[in-house]
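Troubleshooting: if your tokenizer reports a length mismatch, compare your output against this known-good record of 128 residues.
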Amino acid sequence: MVGVGQGPWWAALTTWVVVNTVNVAQAVGFASRSSHGMAVNQALGLVIAALAVPASVALVGFARAGNPWWIGPAVFDAFVVLMLVVDNLWPVQWRDPAQPAILMVAPTPRGPAHHQATGPAPRGTTGR
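Known-good structure output:
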């Protein structure tokens, strides 16, 4: 039995199904890149975007029950909106050609990334 503030069971089940479907879709999309390029990944992106519909239904169910778990589906919906904007409405091309400024953090001259790239300072110096 669902207690006060726990929300409807179907909203929790819906959220569980959405989360695990996204996990499987992302794994399949990532694994298929080397053999199928981005075609499978892009199709699975649409599947993930469509999962915003059941996530939104769960969001409403949680919110109406006063359960704070509505935050999870709300964050997922925001992610889907961001994904659609970055991939379709305002495309940011960072893979082809590769944009190093987007793909990796540029090392700073004296920050931790510098020491990882060049190794520790020689003995007897401060590294400055």
